[in-house]
Amino acid sequence: MSTFLFNHIALSVKDVDQSMAFYQKLFQLKEIENTASGSKTRWLSMGEGKQLHLIPRPDAEIKTNKAVHFALATSNFNAFVLHLDELKIEYSDWLDTPNKDYIRKDGIRQVYFQDPNGYWVEVNDDVQ
């Protein structure tokens, strides 16, 4: 059986510039060259060869719920939550309690929030 490695996340976005600004400001991600095409799709490096691709689809209907999300981990969880507060980004726990983190059964802390297109993002402290 082949081995598989995570490569990228691709999101359809209404306004690629607005989404770029959101992810760059929130996570300090660096833009990298879109080597796949000459399209207006923009790429961000998530480190270690992982990427976030933002694909402009201004007329796309985006439907999602909290169970459909991607998660990032940080060792500076408390500082990140303060960063969300500073940027006035609303977040919640899994049960939708505003401005509250959630502690899973295994002790991992997490928060959830939405990007400008309504995609759910989880940030947790699972940094083994």
Automatic annotation (TrEMBL):
User: Oxidoreductase: present as a keyword of the record?
Assistant: yes
Against Pfam families, the record matches this protein to:
Glyoxalase
Sorted alphabetically, which InterPro entries does this protein's record hold? Answer: Fosfomycin_Res_Enzymes, Glyas_Bleomycin-R_OHBP_Dase, Glyas_Fos-R_dOase_dom, VOC_core
> Which residues belong to any copy of the VOC domain?
5-126
Example of a GO MF term: dioxygenase activity
The superkingdom listed in its UniProt entry is Bacteria
KW Oxidoreductase (keyword) present: yes
- Gene3D superfamilies tied to this protein: 2,3-Dihydroxybiphenyl 1,2-Dioxygenase, domain 1 (3.10.180.10)
Q: Which UniProt keywords apply?
A: Dioxygenase, Lyase, Oxidoreductase
**Protein name as it appears in the record:** Catechol 2,3-dioxygenase-like lactoylglutathione lyase family enzyme
Species of the source? Algibacter lectus
